[in-house]
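Changelog note: in this version the structure field was regenerated for every chain. One regenerated record is shown below for reference.
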Amino acid sequence: MELTQALSIEEQLVAELERLGIRYLSRLMPESAKQVRNPGVLLADLILQPSSRVRTAVIALLLAHPEYASSIPIALARLQEMDQLALKLFYTAAVWLQRQHAARLQVYLRERWQWLPDLFSTGLGLSIEQSTQENLRQLGEIHRQLSGIAANWVGTYQNVALQLLRRWDLEKQWNQ
């Protein structure tokens, strides 16, 4: 796929996220989304992006739209094994981040609020008996081992949640 085509797909995804209330990602082109693709397709397409800023937006999407959890099986069916693993890891990060930021998320989501079901923690070796912070730390270590990428995964997960919440805080101030 050539670079301009990849950028166009990425920009379309960012525009769709914007329609869904996820507006912290900067845009390179003034592309607008007239509609948003099916949740399972959107989740899979985000994971398939080469840009980590767009790939990790899966976490923000799940925090902003916990109802998309029901589309995880559809997304997984569209992905190859390594991308399935990435989706499971990011989904699990969203589960633990939602617990950590539940009070703030409930304020913004109101009647759309629902808990993300914990689909993968046990399979990844995490325990509900541990603290949220400890599970995020362990998840980051598992992510590092399975991906072979020595990134600060916990910081990456936290950054997505904080960017989403900060943007919502700013939008609330702007609209007062």
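Spot check on this record: Residues 153-174 form the longest helix (22 residues). The radius of gyration is 16 Å.
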